[in-house]
Design a protein that fits this description.
Blueprint lengths: L3 E2 L2 E5 L1 H12 L5 H8 L3 H8 L21 H11 L10 H11 L5 H15 L19 E13 L2 E12 L5 E6 L4 H15 L5 E4 L6 E4 L5 E3 L1 H10 L2 E4 L9 H17 L10 H9 L15 H8 L2
Parallel strand pairs: 3-6, 6-9
Antiparallel strand pairs: 1-2, 3-4, 4-5, 7-8
Helix pairs in contact: 1-8, 2-3, 5-6
Length: 312
């Protein structure tokens, strides 16, 4: 993916700016090294080290490529043939010839690039070249985030709520907060509250390709993250990472752990209007719930003990 906004090649995307600031302020990488790595001048690197908000570009003239009026027709053909056997689908060359019959005067390379981008966006399965290793995380490096849907009683009315879950991968410390919906404003607010509770932000945040976080999924681990969300990542200097679609093993223990913690809370107190005085004790018990054997250690350390290393 290019490091510049598609509508203006002279403006860096927020993901590149966030990575520049993270590598300089967190990993203590020099400005000269960053300039060589990103192939940018040192004044540009210095300028973006001070960039907090998303760069804004106002388009002066809207381009009208020759393929523009035929985008809908071409995409409709691609969608219609996506479910056909591969040998029955039209190639980019054949699609170009059909567009010429419809009146398109663009070149073949434009159609070919459009078809290639469209197929790349639809690619959702991991490739056969991918390898998988056991997950192990250093202290304070990674935190996982996901939503769950729960039913609770609020003021005598049974309602459905959305619960945001944060879990540190090393210490297994949790943070849970409920919202009425899963809008982006609530995603951003949940992150601010979680980082305040943790006393800081991890180096990486792992997501399950949420629509409020990821705008487009490409081949492998390549993603286009939401610009407003990247502004949050740039502020807290963490690196967003999206899981591979249809790869539940990447967060298997997280899924089981999330269901256990929420169901335990709601089974004890289905009405959340008034939490009993034993809430802190239950929270400590949930935090210290053992996940099971860890490598060669049949029990492993308690999460409460691991949490101390996360805060160091």
């Amino acid at each position: 993916m290019s490091g510049f906004l598609p509508e203006n090649p002279g403006v860096l995307v927020m993901g590149i700016i966030a990575e520049i600031r993270r590598r300089h302020f967190i990993e203590n990488e020099t400005i000269t090294s960053l300039a060589e790595a990103f192939k940018l001048s040192r004044p540009i690197i210095r300028m973006h080290l001070k960039t907090i908000a998303e760069p804004v570009y106002q388009r002066q003239n809207q381009p009208h490529p020759k393929l523009g009026p035929f985008h809908g027709q071409l995409e409709a053909w691609l969608e219609q043939e996506a479910h056909l056997p591969r040998k029955q689908r039209r190639t980019a060359q054949r699609l170009y010839e059909c567009l010429q019959v419809e009146g398109c005067r663009g070149s073949y390379t434009v159609v070919q690039r459009y078809v290639k981008r469209w197929k790349r966006k639809r690619a959702s399965s991991p490739t056969v070249k991918q390898a998988f290793v056991p997950l192990a995380f250093p202290a304070g490096e990674t935190c996982q985030f996901d939503w769950s849907q729960e039913t609770v009683e609020l003021d005598g009315v049974v309602q459905t709520i959305k619960v945001a879950h944060f879990r540190l991968a090393y210490g297994r410390q949790m943070f849970v907060v409920a919202y009425p919906r899963e809008t982006q404003e609530m995603v951003l607010d949940a992150h601010c509250k979680a980082f305040t509770c943790f006393g800081g932000a991890p180096k990486r945040m792992v997501y399950d390709n949420l629509k409020t976080v990821v705008d487009a999924i490409f081949v492998g681990k390549e993603r286009r993250f939401n610009r407003r969300f990247l502004t949050l990542a740039n502020h807290y200097l963490f690196e967003p990472v999206a899981c591979t679609p249809e790869s539940g093993w990447e967060k298997a223990r997280w899924k089981i752990r999330r269901a256990t913690s929420v169901s335990g809370c709601l089974h004890r107190w289905p009405s959340l209007s008034i939490l009993p005085p034993s809430t802190p004790g239950w929270r400590r018990a949930v935090v210290n719930w053992r996940d099971g054997p860890i490598l060669n250690n049949p029990l492993g350390p308690l999460p409460g003990a691991l949490w101390k290393n996360n805060r160091c």
